Amino acid sequence: MAFARTRQALAIAGVLGLALGATACGTGNDKKSDKASSPECAAYEKYQGHDGKKVTIYSSIRDIEADRLEQSWKQFEDCTGITIDHEGSGEFEAQLGVRVDGGNAPDLAFIPQPGLLKRFVDSGKIKTVGADTKALAEQNFTADWLKYSTVDGKLYGVPLGSNVKSYVWYSPKTFKEKGWTVPTTWDELIALSDKIAASGTKPWCAGIESGDATGWPATDWIEDVMLRTAGPEVYDQWTTHGIPFNDPKVADAVNKAGTILKNEKYVNGGFGGVKSIATTSFQEAGTPITTGKCAMHRQASFYANQWPKGTKVAEDGDVFAFYFPAIDPAKGKPVLGAGEFVAAFADRPEVQAVQTYLASGEYVNSRAKIGDWLSANKKLDINNVPNPVDKLSVQILQDPKTVFRFDGSDLMPAAVGAGTFWKGMVDWINGKDTATVLNGIESSWPK
Amino acid sequence: MEFDFAEEQPKFLMLMYGLIAFVAVVGGLLLLLDVVPAWFARRHEAKLVAASASGAPLPRRPKQREGLFALFFLLPTLLLLAVGLVVPAIRTTLLSFMDGSSSHWVGLRNYGWMFSEDSIVRVLINTLIWVLLVPLVATTFGLVYAVLVDRARFEAVAKSLIFLPMAISFVGASIIWKFVYAYRGEGDQIGLLNQIVVSLGGEPKQWLLESPLNTFLLIVIMVWIQAGFAMVVLSAAIKAIPADIVEAARLDGVTPWQMFWRITLPSIRPALIVVVVTLSIATLKVFDIVRTATNGNYDTSVIANEMYNQAFRYQQNGQGSALAVFLFVLVVPIVIYQIRNLRQQREG
């Protein structure tokens, strides 16, 4: 009896083994780069010699944006025979650490936070960029940008995409109808806000709800104002903890932002009072502009993708953005922005080839043509940027008067920049006073 | 977007590999469990046959061998327990004495931080409120409901109504209740609670922003889910009370009140303890509800949520581990109490 059962079990195991073997045969799918010698591949000459190799990329980019990304390097793949395997994750920041510490690091990662990049540099996980990449990066980016991925004089990442955050969205149509003009100074901005408030419409709308990142749009507000009230040097001290978080200069900036964000007369057009900012999602925060319930919404260039379908984003369209004016024009034209950096966890030649390619003018122009994307890369041709807001951003980024600073919360340690700063801003909107909030954030700064 | 099989092929392939790997591992284990004992049994049988044929005394299976045999079967469990439980527990404890990047020893600093940082003290207080209220309210509610519907006409329907929320995940339930608490500054209220307030002539409120009320509103979600569990277990216990005891009490002329306190409650005491203990542990671990409904903002965070934030989002491994250890320390007494209770019952 026992013998019969054993035979039966052996038979089952045999069938399983067969099935395994059969599927193993079905996956041979070699990629041939027979196009390598065709004329459109001439630009990829220097990346040749890695046929059949695979490079994995991990990023926070998903859905349509990810499709566009993959489309942007399609020709590179076809010509060089390198397969780029991109994976986007909604939990990128948390999962990257898990993957790297678990010995399952991607070859390349698009890291949007210099603070996070530095953490991996400190633990020795990120490789310095290759010589070719470094030369190209120094040629194509300003020192302002490269300093964010430089640690102890060594370059660990190359900027990829960028965005400009110092924007106020408005409706050119409504402004024209009501006879409002786009403000170019802070005083004009406040005068306009008062004028709109007096007419019975709340001039500003805002929303900081964003799932587990709730609070970030408010930190952008503070950073943008801080850059204007305290200037770029103090801003740098603030983000590196050269001055404490509860420094009077920070409190000034927060209170200045509060004159708009915590002003019941100014906010929150289309949603309710000040507190409704905390529960309004950042995606829908600006939409009352299209219905005339709100006049202005301070948000980054990427907000262009959030408007309802059929909204024309242009200077003569339904919505457009103007530059968030400086308070003291003598201090230059402060611009807050952000972007992601391509960092390598492996130094195989094909990985370096891809990293070099992503820093090149060919790549940024190829990606920009597909739309809704821009870069601080100097090789980016403004004519390849289809979207009017992105055109404006490229102009701002390439303007020599611009004083660019990276989003401060991305520079701070994650415990503050992705933690207590966000949470503190939620509490601040929800009624806590500036001093309590800033003291709380200061005490949470990792020692 | 159209569904393109060719494009999704890698995913299907992964799925197939996963399935095959699963079948291979589970099938392999089953096979092993089938073949090995059978092989030993046959050998033993053969020996017996040989022994009886030669007329020698029957060989005794040596004690030592039996121990080895037991070890062989325990080994996978022990291994998995070590890898999945013992090692991580020790490692977490060690990490809790180190700094954020787990590279330097900092002694008890993380524990000091836990009790001195205002926002973390708030987290601890919230957890305390949770663990006091949820087991108490959910059990009371479940018990009263179980007694009331016991042998009522629509018992089955009434019970399933309370039990249904059990089938909803914590995240799902939190989303549902977020709609109940929803607030609109302008236009019609879409939240049930605010609509009720408005129709009674009140002003709509942003319920989830009002501390400490919001913590209690989140507790309502947990009670809503867990009351069904308490009700089902307690109802089964009530039904198991021997009919003769109930009958004897009736003959002695008890009032319903006495019946509940003198007969029902003492009879279902073991079940009651199981329910309270289970709910207490589940409450200490609560994470999903807070993360979904408020993400720990507006002073609603609890230990498990803060632990996740510290360790995985803020990269403060030390502080996260300290919170995890503290949570573990809180659960231990409840578990010990439960085990002692079980032993007493077995002996009694």
The shape of chain B is: extended
Our Rg estimate of chain B from Cα atoms comes to 28 Å
CATH class of the largest domain in chain B: Mainly Alpha
CATH topology heading of the largest domain in chain A: D-Maltodextrin-Binding Protein, domain 2
Our Rg estimate of chain A from Cα atoms comes to: 25 Å
Number of helices of chain B: 14
Tell me the β content of chain A.
5-15%
Average of per-residue pLDDT values of chain A: 87
CATH-derived architecture of the largest domain in chain A: 3-Layer(aba) Sandwich
CATH level-1 class of the largest domain in chain A? Alpha Beta
Give the beta-strand count of chain B: 0
Task: Give the class of chain A from helix and strand content and strand pairing.
Answer: alpha/beta
The H-and-E topology of chain B, N to C, reads as HHHHHHHHHHHHHH
What is the oligomer described by this structure?
heterodimer
Domain tally of chain A = 2
Low-confidence stretches of chain A: 13-33
What does this 3D model show about the protein?
With 447 residues, chain A is of the alpha/beta class. Chain A has 2 domains: 41-164 and 337-403, D-Maltodextrin-Binding Protein, domain 2 (3-Layer(aba) Sandwich); 167-335 and 406-444, Periplasmic binding protein-like II (D-Maltodextrin-Binding Protein, domain 2, 3-Layer(aba) Sandwich), CATH 3.40.190. Chain A has 20 helices and 12 strands. Chain A has helices at residues 2-25, 63-72, 74-80, 92-101, 114-122, 131-140, 143-146, 172-178, 186-198, 216-229, 231-239, 248-261, 276-279, 288-291, 349-358, 361-370, 388-398, 408-411, 414-429, 434-444; strands at 54-59, 83-88, 108-111, 150-151, 154-155, 157-164, 167-170, 202-204, 294-298, 320-323, 333-344, 402-406. In chain A, the strands form 3 sheets. In chain A, strands 1, 2, 3, 6, 11 and 12 form a 6-stranded mixed β-sheet that branches. Chain A has a 4-stranded mixed β-sheet with strand order 8-9-7-10. The longest helix of chain A is centred in the first third of the chain and has 24 residues, at 2-25. Chain B has helices at residues 5-54, 63-95, 109-116, 118-149, 155-163, 170-180, 192-199, 213-239, 243-251, 256-267, 269-284, 288-293, 303-313, 317-347. The mean pLDDT of chain B is 89.
